[in-house]
Write a structure and sequence with these properties.
Number of strands: 12
Distance between the termini: 75 Å
GO cellular component, one term: cytosol
Subunit structure: Monomer.
Protein name: Glutamate--tRNA ligase
CATH topology of one domain: Arc Repressor Mutant, subunit A
Strand order of the largest sheet: 1-2-3
CATH architecture of one domain: Orthogonal Bundle
Enzyme class: ligase
Number of helices: 19
Helix content: 40-55%
Subcellular location: Cytoplasm
């Protein structure tokens, strides 16, 4: 049985956003679901635009989302000798040839074809054929190297997303596979479409799962693979991810870096869940774990239409994952957010996990959780309006009375609830009158979960100090 081998092959020419990373998620999920191999390949042949910083962000984003790789990262710029070796073999076997048509000649040819309402394409001037006399080699022109594309017939494949696709070979001209070389008779820089083929061949890729912006490259890549004696992998071309305005997701159209979602308090498993659902489905399941995704994932349920990103939906998915997450698992994430707020928390803070348990149902991100829990990690500053509204002259005596009672009760929810009940009875107040005042003074805000449960998470002395400040 053939081992499934998939790959993610990003170009490090800018930060990676959610639309890009989905092209890593699906081949990763398919490899994991199939007990296969997932490979990372950095396609950095565009040396002017590629950067190590962009590579670092790709690696950081994949590590955060848990998209672990089995092989790689491999860098195309480090494989140039291998690409040139294959091109040299193709030249020897007549599968490729040198083309001396200058850029000016190509542009003139293109203009003539457009004027004649023909499809602009290279016309095969330098393509060797039996009995054909080639033009004299011009002086001073460094040739490109072109692949001898088959003439006649067609190239076809059964795409796992788009179904049967068939392209006539006569629609494809002879692809440039190497740019002009600096030295006579040499092989210049191999081109992207060629490097991809050699990589997929050498790495034994069985399934190419990538964005549908590569569909036009596929027939050329299949023809080169077959010329090299290999059968093509299975292809699945994923529909585009659109932004909330219906445009292709991109940095230019406001897309955020993947790592920004981490910093904004989203859980990796929630982002994986959301992205998987944005192009694949398992019945009507909306919320699922990473383990369920890998148990269910296949290529037969990939969506055929573009998915539209919706941050409100992502927040809802994240909220569901926060509710389901263990409090101990959330603790380090919330601690990191509190540190960003300037409220560091000791690693052994006993209140953190219970506070998470109390507040997480009302939060959609760990940033929101940290905002709530800041009251436990440092001083609070009640707003003037809240103080004026809730800590009135009529309530202050009850606040003082409650502070007195809380000084000697058992410091737990039941003991605090009993002290509040006694205070209400002694001062003839209703629960909201006292509870709002206590919340404003102790928590810095008028709305919280059950006041006795919240107070129990504070040290007794902190509560007494804040109540006495009234």
């Amino acid at each position: 049985m053939t081992v499934v081998r998939t790959r993610f092959a990003p170009s490090p020419t800018g930060f990676i956003h959610l639309g890009n990373i989905r092209s890593a998620l699906f081949p990763w999920a398919f490899a994991r679901a199939s007990q296969g191999v997932f490979i990372l390949r950095i396609e950095d042949t565009d040396e002017e635009r590629s950067s190590q910083a962009a590579v670092d962000v790709i690696l950081e984003s994949m590590a955060w989302l848990g998209l672990d790789v089995d092989e790689g990262p491999f860098y195309q710029t480090r494989r140039m000798d291998r690409y040139r070796e294959v091109i040299a073999q193709m030249l020897e076997r007549g599968l490729a040839y040198r083309c001396y048509m200058s850029q000016a000649e190509l542009e003139a040819l293109r203009e003539r074809q457009i004027a004649a309402k023909e499809k602009p394409r290279y016309d095969g001037t330098w393509r060797p054929e039996p009995g054909k006399v080639l033009p004299p080699v011009p002086a001073g022109v460094a040739p490109v190297i072109r692949f001898r594309n088959p003439i006649g017939g067609s190239v076809a494949w059964d795409d796992k997303v788009k179904g049967r696709i068939e392209i006539a070979n006569d629609e494809l001209d002879d692809l440039v596979i190497a740019r002009p070389a600096a030295e006579p008779g040499g092989i210049g820089t191999p081109t992207y479409n060629f490097c991809v083929v050699v990589d997929d061949l050498d790495m034994g890729i069985t399934h190419v799962i990538r964005g549908d912006d590569h569909v036009n490259n596929t027939p050329r890549q299949i023809n080169i693979l077959r010329a090299l004696g290999a059968e093509p992998p299975v292809y699945a071309h994923l529909p585009t991810v659109l932004n909330e305005q219906g445009e292709k997701m991109s940095k230019r159209h406001g897309a955020k870096a993947v790592t920004q979602y981490r910093d904004e308090g989203f859980l990796a498993d929630a982002v994986v869940n959301y992205l998987a659902r944005l192009g694949w489905s398992h019945g009507d399941d909306e919320i699922f774990s990473r383990e369920q995704l890998l148990a269910w994932f296949d290529l037969d349920h990939l969506g055929k239409s573009a998915g539209q990103f919706d941050e409100a939906k992502l927040r809802w998915v994240n909220a569901q994952h926060i509710k389901q997450a263990g409090d101990a698992a959330l603790a380090p994430l919330v601690r990191a957010q509190l540190e960003r707020l300037g409220r560091p928390v000791a690693a052994d803070a006993g209140w953190l996990a219970p506070a998470i348990a109390l507040f997480k149902d009302r939060c959609s991100t760990t940033v929101e959780l940290a905002d709530w829990l800041g009251m436990f990690a440092g001083p609070v500053q009640p707003g003037a309006e809240d103080l004026a509204t809730h800590v009135t002259a009529a309530v202050r005596p009850a606040v003082a009375g409650l502070a007195g009672r809380l000084a000697d009760v058992a410091w737990d929810k039941a003991g605090i609830a009993a002290a509040i009940k006694e205070t209400l009875a002694a001062h003839g107040l209703k629960m909201p009158q006292l509870a709002h005042a206590v919340r404003v003074l102790v928590c810095g805000r008028a709305q919280t979960p059950s006041v006795d449960a919240v107070l129990a998470l504070f040290p007794r002395e902190t509560v007494l100090e804040r109540l006495r400040a009234a």
